[in-house]
Amino acid sequence: MNAEKSLKLARRFIELPLEKRRLFLDGLRAEEIDFSQFPIPADVPQADRQALSYAQRRMWFLWQLDPHSGAYNLPGAVRLTGTLNLSALEQAFACVVQRHQTLRTVFRQNPDDSLEQVERLASINVEHVDFTLLPAIEREQAVAAEAQQQSLHPFDLANGPLLRIKLLKLGADEHVLLLTLHHIVSEGWSMNVLIDEFIRSYDAFERNEAPSLPELAIQYSDYALWQRRWLEAGEQARQLAYWQAKLGDEHPIITLPNDYPRPAVPSYRGTRHEFAVAPELVEQLRALAQQHTVTLFMLLLGAFNILLQRYSGQNDLRVGVPIANRNRREVEGLIGFFVNTQVLRTQLTADTTVAELLAAVKETALGAQAHQELPFEQLVEALKLERNLSHNPLFQVMYNHQPQVADIEAIKTASGLTLGLIEWEGRTTQFDLSLDTYEKSGRLHAALTYANDLFDGATISRMARHWCNLLRALVDHPERRIGELPMLDASEVQTRVHDWNRTHVEYPTHTSLHVLIEAQVERTPDATALVFGAQSLSYAQLNARANQLAHELRARGVGPDVLVGIAVERSVEMVIGLLAILKAGGAYVPLDPEYPAERLSYMIDDSGIQLLLTQKHLQVALPQHIPVMCLDSLNDQQIARQTRAYSADNPVDLTRPQNLAYVIYTSGSTGKPKGAGNTRAALVNRLSWMQQAYRLTADDAVLQKTPFSFDVSVWEFFWPLLTGARLVVAQPGEHREPLRLIETIRQQQISTLHFVPSMLQAFIHEVGVEQCTSLRRIVCSGEALPVDAQQQVFSKLPDAELYNLYGPTEAAIDVTHWTCIDEGAASVPIGLPIANLRTLVLDANLSPVALGVAGELYLGGAGLARSYHRRPALTAERFVPCPFNQGERLYRTGDWVRQRVDGVIEYLGRLDHQVKLRGLRIELGEIEARLAEQPSVREAVVQVLDGKQLVA
Length: 952
Ligand code: AMP
Ligand code: MG
Description:
Elements (H helix, E strand, L loop, with lengths): L2 H13 L2 H9 L19 H4 L4 H12 L7 E9 L4 H14 L5 E5 L5 E5 L6 E5 L5 H17 L10 E9 L2 E9 L5 H19 L13 H28 L21 E8 L2 H13 L4 H17 L3 E8 L5 H4 L7 E8 L6 H16 L6 H7 L14 E6 L15 E4 L4 E3 L4 E8 L2 E9 L5 H20 L13 H9 L14 H11 L4 E5 L2 E4 H17 L7 E5 L4 H13 L2 E4 L6 H11 L4 E3 L13 E3 L5 H10 L14 E7 L7 E6 H15 L6 E4 L7 H12 L2 E4 L8 H11 L3 E4 L1 H8 L12 E4 L6 H10 L4 E6 L9 E4 L12 E2 L3 E6 L12 E7 L5 E2 L3 H7 E3 L7 E11 L5 E6 L3 E4 L2 E4 H9 L10 E3 L3 E3 L1
Parallel strand pairs: 4-5, 8-10, 10-13, 15-24, 17-18, 17-19, 19-20, 23-24, 25-26, 26-27
Antiparallel strand pairs: 1-6, 1-11, 2-3, 5-6, 7-12, 7-14, 8-9, 13-14, 15-16, 21-22, 22-32, 27-28, 28-29, 30-31, 31-34, 33-34, 34-35, 36-37, 38-39
Helix pairs in contact: 2-8, 5-7, 9-14, 10-12, 10-14, 16-22, 17-18, 21-22, 23-24, 24-25
The structure holds adenosine monophosphate and magnesium ion.
């Protein structure tokens, strides 16, 4: 196009009313717009000419926040092999700098706060460094270190220069050229222009000729001014409306599972992890893209979205995607900051099909393309996002695909120099994670650059493999839902499902618990078994009394899988009663007499018990329709009578391992508590593990203080009795009073006891707790153990070990264990599976999640309850078939956890509305359902406040 025609077009444009300008531009083909003729009219004030583009303006502000970081450095490193003509090199750079105003520019703020770019510098220095004296093997390291140092070293925007050139000499014929630009005057494209112009000028100067580079039609500042005018002419409003509608009002931050806690102020340090995509896979991906009429970029982005969804568990993702923004011929040859960033939002769930995802990505990408000129910085401004140093606004993850990257190795120089690009790992990065893909000489390359503040290298190389696995899965199963695409390596699945669950230990699980206790009675008949206040019983005495009661229970029809209720206060009789029910072959159902009558009555009916053991004074408060036996302290006469009636010998054991030992009720979300029926084998497994792990001896004393309606009490009662230790039953109410506890611990020389963490916290802060020097084992479970409580125990009770156990009532008390140590970690883990138990961290499709990624905890193995008592539907819902081992069941805990690289499990929270209040398990839904039954209540919501109060 000739200059005259162009000028005419430009005049017409300027004369048009604002709303017509866009139409006018749309009618032009890109190459018809000649910027040099799209003139900045002579009357434009000098200040306007020096104004910054939108991108530069934002960069300036960002840089102001942290002027001493190299966050916006743009580094490049080129290896030059062959004889180097130093004067030609310097001349070449002088020539390039002469051509590009940007390279001579500095940025400053005027007293009136306006910003301008000013041409200040005429030339640029080349700094020389000589590495030839270094031993050969150290030279490459020195290069990498120097490249890294350059990429991090901050620029001075106000004084310049904004291009640094460093020439490293490695040998007579080998040099490395380090080029570092500030992002405010450049981007990746500019770096290519710089290298290209340098080489062409160098070739010319080397032959003593003047370089013949094409004249630049405009300079960057012309573009900046044009951009502003064009946007202000209506384009900005139009594109902004599009993006605001597309992005909505919420701008969720994507949270990938990080290896290190996010610092308030980022270091911007990054590492680049390069990896390759197999060529045959790339061919298949191209074919798949074609079938779905999407580009390779869209397909790769789709796979990246799946990866992010799996890692974050978030279904509304935003990925930043840079676009070159050099659509006009006149700007192609410029060095400057043109690149724009778009936010591509994708909504997806595990149920989205591959086809749906690709269609959505395509739609988003095409829409973005049609609205690509709105500078990202204007979008941020318009959305009035809060500035937050620790997170990049609108997106934290970047994806960049370059369909064609010049192969610098293939460039032929007239002077005979060979070029090579040097990659190094140490980078700066403004983002949490960036995926780069580029096609070079027909091959697809990829790199993940990650913030060192957040991730370590192993996590990222795993992530890279997972992305490649997803690409393969897309090709193999294009008909699936994305949640069904396999992401992990087969070896990872093996490790997670099988290797980490090799917990097999032989225990006597075919022998019933009471038989094992009877064996202990044989070993230490005269040792003290049970202490309650002033009362105490030897092993032989306890056994004899439990036997008599057991025979009587048998006579009343108690046998395997017969449930017997027991509603007694803490007492010697409580222990005798529990043991007797087990000896008779039955299963006990603890009914806390402190519970409201209505709840007791519900549990009695729901469990279907035909017999209830209780104490005389409690009888009146209990439902009358059920046969009861009172266990009150027998006077001598009664004992004599009983002795006559029932033998004190061990009853014959009638039970099998799968018979029930106890049924304990927990809160139910639909308003009705449910009973978990646990087997004898599961209980023996749990107690055998505990003894093997923590080893009680005859010298130990265990304080039993947990209400017997909680399964923790089960080990408190029976672990000491299995091992010859002393079982000390706390007085009623004592478990809630730290001062009384301290007294009992000292008097009874307690070595072992349990706390729910909230009670531990009250206890450990009590005056005089240091005097509990007999304590050897403090077992915590029931809720998350705070690091602070752990530290208190370490400092106040240095001789005690602290254990964090985890387990639901549905799996025989506990399933994972952790011995607390001072790791300086932010939380106390729940550890690893106990013997013969298996733990799996799975997603909604029952696939193992990636390491470190949150998932639901599933339990398998010897500890699982047999069922929810008389609740087949609920049982089927929570106890599901194991997808990995045929015939096995898994219990869905509803607990949200993640696994560390060593397999140790960290507890994160609940997936549902179950809460713990001082260790008490409550389904908020149960309370809500009961409230809603009131005629005056239409809707009810229950919440926990400060972890302390229930509020409805
Ligand atoms: P329960 O059936 O009363 O034992 O309650 C089981 C639930 O308590 C689990 O599903 C967890 O939500 C929670 N829980 C038990 N132990 C722990 C622990 N050590 N850390 C965190 N939460 C726990
Ligand atoms: Mg538990």
